[in-house]
Amino acid sequence: MSVFDIEIDALSGGPADLARYRGRALLVVNVASRCGLTPQYALLQALAEEYADRGLTVLGVPCNQFGGQEPGTADEISDFCQVNYGVTFPLTEKVDVNGPDRHPLYTALVSTPDADGHTGDIRWNFEKFLVAPDGTVAARFAPTVAPDDPQLRAAVEKVLPA
Q: What does pTM read for this prediction?
């Protein structure tokens, strides 16, 4: 089973259908609207636009587990992202990324180590996972690693489909 086989709903309702991203690179990011790292939305949007034609999709996964920084409804989250950051990349339903109610997507992601060797629980909003076109998790990035960081961009370049 790959990441693309996991069921999760879209923020707007109905299935997000991750299978449609099979064959593309996918950057999965747990996001929040009221976080000090929230300006990363603009960098994520820029990354999504720059690499869309080369096979990258950014997937935002709202989560309210870190300081209650994503308290909004689906409509509020969507409006915030569009109005403030022009977000056009897909967003999923709000989920738990840690604890007993951890969404299966994050169960599949958290065993991948980041550059410092961290595995397991998500540490904060905007932790990033790069999924290769075959559905394997290729890399993990700490929340403070910005989407325009050279290491993240190099990892994206490495897994883009041919």
A: 0.97
